[in-house]
Amino acid sequence: MTDIHTVTSRDGTAIGYRQLGQGPGLVILHGAMESSQSHIQLAEALSPTFTVYLPDRRGRGQSGPYGSPFTIQTEVDDLSALLAKTAASNILGVSSGAIIALQACLQLPTIQRAAIFEPPLGIDRDSATQSLERYDAEMANGKTSAALVTAMRATEMGPPIFKYVPRWLLEQLTTMAMAHEGSSSPSPQSPDDSNSTTTPANMRALAPTLHYDFQISLSMSDDEAISNLSKVTTEVLLIGGSKSPTYLRSGLDRLEKVLPNINKRVVFAGLGHGATGNSDRRGQPALVAEELRGFFGE
Questions:
Q1: How confident is the model at residue 200 (pLDDT cuts 50, 70, 90)?
Q2: Where is this region: Disordered (predicted)?
């Protein structure tokens, strides 16, 4: 049984979240192009042992808009409000959600354990800024497929063959994929979102949120920001996939050198950046849940 709730963040924005299971509280903070539904199978696998909370980050599901000004602190405040309401002390952060989780560990002593999955750390700032500018221009001109391709190439998402596929063809394939999704996927802020179980909001609806995920990655794009993570005292589990892009695996290497309280690092053989997600998105939720139970249950 999944319940839908909301909590009010510091700036008055409503943050929606799903709740299921029983036991100690565990928050799963999703990454880019995802919503609370993206990890529902992982939550179900963990639900016999934990009360799992799946928030929709801003701009998605039951949550309010990003607002202005927006910084990573905005998302830390959202997470803080959820932790205060639920008394949860465990968190899994995925991709850009992992950057938010790390920043939260610096500020929120109530977080006792954090599992960190492939945060996009230390990206090339100039390249990422150029990609963001191009993405913003394409979105402003209604070229959603082109903007998604720009983001996909910048983050090295998609099969390796995508590096060799002409851009015009990638845009055409993306347009076809969005058309295929059609109205079967919920929009990011649909009133009927609570009726959906495993289907994340569709690509077209989630595309505008990428601007903010770029911002979050850029906030952790220099050596000083990463060095500052040496102040994190939370016990940390580092997680990654053997098939993920090199820069994501390198990011975990950097965390191994700077975080003072690492429990261990786990690499899932044969899995990529979607490892924690639902099985229809190339995830292995049962495998990930087994590792998380060991860490959070100790």
A1: low
A2: 179-201
